[in-house]
């Protein structure tokens, strides 16, 4: 079971992609295909001892930049590393894709080449957050900015299956992100969504608030991609700001600096706990295949872990389980919002 | 110029309200009326040396609880401390209200008793956030969950005037919260809003992201109340979680504990920088009067500072300036969304 790595996508490509891939093959025995400029990749691979490692290089002549639009990237750059990586999956030459490139383009390429999972209207990007208790999966943090209730219901089902299968949570609790826990809170979207979620066969906890994400009150937090993106970037920004503010304070006196040095291990343990590299990437849920989106600034460790989780995603049959769960909750998950049905009703 | 304090609203009422009021009168010379159960308040006041301080008590027999619905609270509890406080403003016996109680009820009571500022469709609650550069005002963090573009435009104008008048920022930069900086990002609401904001006579910076709030990229961040509430509570939750995680790490070894003790001053300076009590409350913008909403868990210092900022809000003539700015940008700020106009166009 081979993982195709878009080796040209990230901010530090292809250096970290190659290093991470070599580490994944060596540590986990997962075969990897590096997709990108063959010359550049061979040159990078030469820096590593690859003897006996199942690593192959597959040529792609183009690269989707961080500022390319997702749809243009798919339509105009037909030989881009991200699109070619998904083509390898389509052709049965790989089982999953890992990319630290343009996440919108990765989502678009995945959908374009592999199509959607049956029963899913819009795929979502899910992100694992560290919490006081353990970890919480938040979705969508991707590009679904204007969602209908049914989109969020499908996100909830996909998130539940991923949490159960890959994160190893026995009976995941699902929460819907809102502006208060009471049923009287929420907006039009959450009120319609919560009414449907109550009828799905899983452990639905109702509304949760922003603070509950880091307290780990539930295992899966569902929201639209606009709100999810704000949550993701606010968290990154706040964590960085807190770090910088503390650092500035430590610089103010010799005693404080000494204290910092003594407590450094505690700081490093803390940093490790909140380090995205440990979680290895954000699964792209809802395409008919497996994609793992890593942070643009990923290091080799993040790429290595993304390859591991992509492998588990396939091994655990997550997509098959999602399709089953959608089927088991049919017709709740499809009947409410489909326009053709509404048109029929109106006509 | 007297400030009416809802002395029964907060989690620690009336202890911190009385203590904060006494401190505000003593330190800033601002006359205060404490509104609530007279017996209880006199009993609490007796703990302080109030000689020569201009503090009066005004009776209100009811209290709006944190779980009361805002509209019920106003309609059913006509003698509640929050409603009576606003009635004092209406009667000209006070110039501003401070409350650490149910924020939805405070907003509802303010609107019900004092009505809206001319040109404002929906009042908003604004919150000051500490940033790496200075401070950023975010609004709405209150109850406007499903907004129209015009609501956000009015929030932007109110925020700009508040930042200029009370926060002392000479030429505030305004940003619209979105899921990316590029114009191609955003949802239906932000796309329509940004088109209008470009024509307002202020320094509009376009879309900003979640991370930009703590970097202090702009002085005022505009969003709907659903997103703003998630931003507010996520920030509180993350800051608390980071504190707890660090504390746990420090407990792991003697050396780390020693380091923490030496660096304690740095930690305390940092805490002070992010302490909401320093900012004293969230201004309620858009009612025809002045209201300052303090955190439910406020301490006396937070109440004291809220009284100070409420006083400045009145002194600086913020409402008059907002009305002027709305007028100066007429008809952009009203013509786009008013249903009667749309109806006329359709008819």
UniProtKB/TrEMBL annotation, chains A, B:
Q: Which reaction does it catalyse?
A: a fatty acyl-[ACP] + phosphate = an acyl phosphate + holo-[ACP]
Which class of enzymes does this protein belong to?
A: transferase
Catalytic activity, EC: 2.3.1.274
MF (Gene Ontology): acyltransferase activity
Sorted UniProt keywords: Acyltransferase, Cytoplasm, Lipid biosynthesis, Lipid metabolism, Phospholipid biosynthesis, Phospholipid metabolism, Transferase
Family annotation (SUPFAM superfamilies): Isocitrate/Isopropylmalate dehydrogenase-like
| Domain of life, per lineage | Bacteria
Q: Which Pfam families match?
A: FA_synthesis
- Family of the protein in this entry: Belongs to the PlsX family.
HAMAP family (alphabetical): PlsX
Q: How is the subunit organization of this protein annotated in UniProt?
A: Homodimer. Probably interacts with PlsY.
What protein name does the entry list? Phosphate acyltransferase
């Amino acid at each position: 079971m081979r993982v195709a790595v878009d080796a040209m996508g990230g901010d530090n490509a292809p250096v970290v992609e190659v290093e991470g891939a070599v580490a994944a093959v060596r540590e986990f025995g997962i075969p990897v295909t590096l997709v990108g400029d063959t010359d550049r990749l061979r040159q990078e691979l030469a820096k590593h001892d690859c003897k006996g490692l199942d690593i192959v290089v597959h040529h792609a002549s183009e690269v989707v930049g961080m500022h390319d639009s997702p749809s243009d990237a798919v339509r105009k750059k037909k030989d881009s590393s991200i699109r070619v990586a998904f083509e390898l999956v389509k052709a049965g030459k790989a089982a999953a894709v890992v990319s630290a490139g343009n996440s919108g383009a990765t989502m678009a390429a995945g959908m374009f080449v592999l199509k959607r999972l049956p029963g899913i209207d819009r795929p979502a990007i899910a992100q694992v957050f560290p919490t006081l208790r353990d970890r919480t999966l938040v979705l969508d943090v991707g590009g679904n900015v204007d969602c209908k209730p049914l989109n969020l219901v499908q996100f909830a089902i996909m998130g539940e299956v991923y949490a159960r299968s890959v994160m190893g949570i026995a009976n995941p609790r699902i929460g819907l992100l809102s502006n208060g826990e009471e049923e009287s809170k929420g907006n039009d979207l959450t009120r319609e969504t919560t009414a449907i979620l109550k009828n799905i066969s899983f452990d639905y906890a109702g509304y949760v608030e922003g603070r509950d994400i880091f307290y780990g009150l539930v295992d899966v937090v569902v929201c639209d991609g606009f709100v999810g993106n704000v949550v993701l970037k606010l968290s990154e920004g706040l964590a960085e700001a807190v770090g910088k503010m503390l650092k500035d304070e430590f610089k103010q006196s010799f005693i404080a600096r000494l204290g910092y040095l003594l407590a450094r291990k505690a700081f490093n343990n803390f940093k490790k706990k909140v380090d995205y590299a440990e979680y290895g990437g954000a699964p792209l849920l809802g395409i008919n295949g497996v994609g793992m989106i890593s942070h643009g600034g990923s290091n080799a460790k993040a790429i290595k872990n993304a390859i591991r989780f992509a492998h588990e995603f396939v091994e655990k049959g997550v997509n098959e389980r999602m399709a089953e769960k959608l089927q088991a909750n049919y017709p709740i998950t499809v009947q409410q919002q489909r326009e053709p049905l509404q048109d029929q009703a109106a006509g």
